[in-house]
Sequence to fold (114 residues):
Amino acid sequence: MPIALKRIYEPIESKDGYRILVDRLWPRGIKKEEAHIDAWLKEVAPSTELRKWFHNGEGSFADFKKKYLAELKDNPALKELRTLFKEHKKITLLYAAKDEKNNHAQILAGVLKS
Fold:
């Protein structure tokens, strides 16, 4: 099953399929009625503490990934995300982070693909 990653600020495309916002906070400058999301799974995002820790530069992306994977281990929202992944032919994980390579959506995609 195809899975894509996309910044929520990028244009909506028909090839996006089922669009899931995976950020804990609503992205700045995006109106909810114009976001065209099918689901918002904020509970699958990193905890507020982990997000602040990483954004304050207190650890590397590798450290962040290790801590985030530990959080996901017992997270019921991950089960919900896996179900959505199985139910839809194509999903797009939406995130607001500026860094397109080192963000939690990349980690989630890896978890779903494994």
The chain has one domain: 3-113.
